[in-house]
């Protein structure tokens, strides 16, 4: 068990089409022995979409982690002074969250969790999922790639011809990225092509 005893904060933001896949990755992290604490953005906690209901996502997170889901800024703020987590994962991380994080905006539970965790100089692992990663958000990804204590899950263009600006992390690499981030290392390569199966 590679993460035995590790306290992992896990922030889920509103790339709703990716959440089901992320739940499977959280199950793997729990199976590796980690103590996982879920945090959700307002979008995840309040928005029903064709991909699922907000209440169902939150219930599944609680079932998998056996922890209450952090849903408000007030609930997320004590993460900093309490030094609650050894590592914080943001997956999926939307373009909206990327942009706000890169520009120091803290107006959701997700962003407060990240800000609070970073104050302790501890690693944040980001798994991007955005349709504008090579568009307006490219500069924000570049900013975060050069920021202290930020580590990126390898990502690539998931659909370069239909959605040429879209970037999505290889979610199956989250655990490998976390293990290296805990050692202060960025997994390589960061840019990994999506191949058609």
Walk me through this protein's architecture.
By secondary structure, this protein is α/β, with parallel strands linked by helices. It has one domain: Flavin prenyltransferase-like (Rossmann fold, 3-Layer(aba) Sandwich). Helices cover 35% and strands 17% of the residues. The chain has 8 helices and 7 strands; from the N terminus they run βαβαααβααβαβββα. Strands 1, 2, 3, 4, 5, 6 and 7 form a 7-stranded mixed beta sheet that branches. α1 (19-31) packs parallel to α3 (54-65) and α5 (95-102) packs across α7 (138-145). The radius of gyration is 15 Å and the shape is globular.
Quote the distance from N terminus to C terminus: 30 Å
Structural category is alpha/beta
Mean pLDDT: 97
Strand content: 15-25%
Shape: globular
Q: Can you identify the CATH superfamily?
A: Flavin prenyltransferase-like
Give me the Rg, rounded: 15 Å
Please outline what is shown here:
The protein is of the alpha/beta class and 197 residues long. Helix content is 35%, strand content 17%.
List the keywords:
single chain, 197 residues, alpha/beta, Rossmann fold, 8 helices, 17% strand, globular
Write the layout of secondary structure elements.
Blueprint: E1 7-12, H1 19-31, E2 35-40, H2 42-46, H3 54-65, H4 73-76, E3 87-93, H5 95-102, H6 109-118, E4 124-130, H7 138-145, E5 150-152, E6 155-156, E7 167-169, H8 174-181
Parallel strand pairs: 1-2, 1-3, 3-4, 4-5
Antiparallel strand pairs: 4-7, 6-7
Helix pairs in contact: 1-3, 5-7
């Amino acid at each position: 068990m590679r993460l035995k005893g590790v306290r992992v904060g896990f922030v889920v933001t509103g790339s709703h089409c990716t959440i089901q896949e992320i739940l499977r990755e959280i199950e793997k992290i729990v199976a590796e022995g980690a103590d996982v604490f879920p945090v959700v953005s307002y979008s995840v906690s309040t928005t029903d979409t064709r991909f699922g209901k907000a209440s169902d996502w939150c219930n599944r997170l609680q079932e998998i982690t056996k922890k209450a889901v952090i849903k408000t800024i007030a609930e997320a703020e004590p993460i900093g002074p309490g030094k609650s987590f050894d590592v914080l994962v943001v997956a999926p991380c939307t373009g909206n969250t990327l942009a706000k994080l890169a520009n120091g905006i803290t107006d959701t539970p997700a962003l407060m969790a990240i800000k609070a965790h970073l104050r302790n100089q501890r690693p944040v692992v980001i798994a991007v999922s955005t349709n504008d990663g090579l568009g307006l958000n490219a500069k924000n990804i570049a900013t975060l790639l050069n920021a202290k204590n930020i580590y990126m899950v390898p990502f690539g263009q998931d659909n370069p011809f239909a959605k040429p600006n879209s970037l999505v992390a290889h979610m199956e690499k989250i655990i490998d990225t976390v293990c290296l981030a805990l050692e202060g290392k960025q997994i390589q390569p960061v840019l990994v092509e999506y191949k058609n199966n």
